[in-house]
Amino acid sequence: MGAASAVSWAAEPSAQAKKTTSARADVPWVSLAHQRQLREKSAPAAEQTDAVLPKDAKSKTVFSKIARAPELSADKFDYSQSGDDEIIASGNAKITDERFELSADKIKYSQKTGNSVAEGKVKASIDSSRVAAETFSYNAQKEELKTPHARFGSSPMFLETDKILSLENKISLDNPKLYVGEPSFYSMNVSASQIRYDTDSELLEFDDPLVAIGPIPVFYAPYYSQYGLEKPPFDIQTRVGYNSDFGAFWANTVHYNGLGHVSPGVLLDYYTARSVLFGPAVNYDYAGAETWIKGFAQGAYINDHGDRGQLGYDSLGRPITHDRFFAKMRHIQTYSDNVSVIGSLAWWSDEYITRDFRPEFFYDDQNPDNFAEVDYYGSSYTLSLFTRFSPNDWQLVQQRLPEARFDLPAGEIFNTGFYQNMYASAAYLRETGPDALLSQYLDTARIDAYYGVMRPINLNSWSSITPVVGGRMTYYGNPNGGKSDYVRFLGQIGFDAQMDVWGTWDYQSKTMGIDGLRHHLTPVISYRYIPNAEQGRGAIPQIDDIDIEDFTYPPILDLGEMRNTDGIIKTNTLRLGLKNTIETRDETYGSRELARLDIFQDFNFDKRVLAQNDFKESSYSDLYTNFSLSPARWLTLGCYNRFNIENLNVPETNAYIGLFDSDKFSLYLISSYLDGAITQYSALAEYRISERYKLMGRWAYDYRLSMLTDQTYSLWTRLGNSWIVEYRISYRSGSTRQNNFSFGARLTMAIF
After folding, report:
1. How many other CB atoms are found less than 10 A from the CB of residue 463?
2. Class of domain 35-152
3. 348-404: per-residue pLDDT in tens?
4. Quick one: which of 80, 50, 46, 76 has its CA closest to 63?
5. Is the pTM higher than 0.85?
6. Residue 285: CB partners within 8 Å, gap ≥ 6?
7. CATH 2.60.450.10 domain position(s) in the chain
8. How many CA atoms lie less than 13 Å away from 256 in the CB half-sphere?
9. CB-based contacts of 204: which residues, under 8 Å, 6+ apart?
10. Do 135 and 150 contact (CB within 8 A), yes or no?
11. How many helices (H) and strands (E) does the chain have?
């Protein structure tokens, strides 16, 4: 949903608001900008139980000496003669307890009953709720509250009512009006004859509720109920506009929140050139004493009326059918501190369905993963059960059906100074994908285990070396695509060494936000020898086989960490690296990184065929560099680069620069280059005109095509305090599916 951003609830409503609400002029609104934080009290229980009046006129505070009793302050104090042991505080009167703070022109506090009665310009904070009224009665011991003509609330819900009666866990409101978000002309609101709220069950009940947006009625019912105050009755997100491929459209996502932890909903879109898209949706969220659950599920179907030119073809040249759908689910759950469950489902009829109709899904996850995992965390080990599956016939997927794994992280062996780590896994693997990509499916049963020992040695206070030795056994059973059952044994020896040196300087710069400098320099050297890794390659189905020599970042060296299990190659490699960081002190985080420069280079004693060297044998890897610079909070820039030292070319580089002022603007310039594949420049800009208006732009330029492939211009504005409206114009070009023009508006609730 839209971004949650608070706008102050003005102390006096605007002239427009006064004309359109039933607010009483004698009751002021409470500003969110002045929300008070309750002060902690520590009154000792062992002291006197009687309140002590000030001995002279200069004293401003009276303390009750009863444990947990409130603190009362005012310009003047008097005793009541009623026999209730009552203190009368007047003139800037304030009473504060562990749960509430109350200020008024006059406060009467009974030491006998614990009742507080406030009169005149009453402002109260009770837990996270705020109340404004002319008279106010509150008893913390009985948890009782009474007040007429009040306004109160706790974001995102705010109310005005003729009468409040609260006793223990029961709250009733007469003739209330509830606002979703801070009250404004456009606020979603609900008026009723009565509202009841049970603080224990969190059941909220409405008699004769009338739902409206501003002054416009939308829905009426004789009775309505929901659980919880954190959400409005409905979450609404809607888009309207025009697209050259889809025609005029109206796209909606709506959730009903009245059931508490589960919010059912619907997706309902209409496209004049493509038909109707519809389907169910649900969000859920539960937090108990030992378990926490959160997730969502959505799905939709459309009989796409687009012609062949509009439907197009997928990346394999297959025609996209008229019957199109998608289903998407995410689930995460924890139980106690030991068990976690996570899962994801993305079932798409074709690879472009979400890009066409739900672009927020597509750009978040362009190559969707379908998996489920259960983890158990022991005191010094982890057990996991993982499965990856493929409901989509357009993806190449390495399935695990399933995989069980045991991990023993590095730990010391009986106080010897030696450390061990190990893992063992058992899986049934299958590689499936479109027939155009695979002539046959690959599958096998696989058992994989590793055990390693290391011995850290501190050479001195600033350098260390860690020798490493380990072995890995992998069994393949009944492989399809291999020769027969096969067992592979691999071993490694090596070491990791590093130095840590640093220097400090007392340099100050208020302009750059610099408070001292520290330079941390870390040279690193790693070596691994893994012989005969390619023996038996013909007996191993190449399922978990990735090209480690064409990684964006330096490939993994350690045998126990390599995840390309079926494609491990012989290794006789020395890695040299240098890490540099420059930091300064930071009041919030302790330190802030100003600059970083990391450099890595591998030397292969046994020449290997490298993809980045045009598949020629080479002893040298690319030179990997990672540079970033943030000399001030308003400036950041960086560059990641791969340089081929033999061919003297740059196979890959990614650079960026960012200029921003958190209150006014931000600008990011990004360049991406991958030899033979990508040469693209992009820019992102945002300018805040005011608290209610913001301009945004996005541009992408493809150097190979010599054109702007993406132009997007947006105006973001607030509609009252409850809604965000984004007006957008987009033009995309560069491919058959992306040659379109669109404009429209998106409406979301600003507080959720």
Report:
1. 14
2. mainly beta
3. 999 889 888 988 777 767 778 899 999 999 988 999 999 999 888 888 888 899 999
4. 50
5. no
6. 261, 293, 294
7. 35-152
8. 9
9. 195, 196, 197, 225, 226, 227, 228, 229
10. no
11. 4, 46
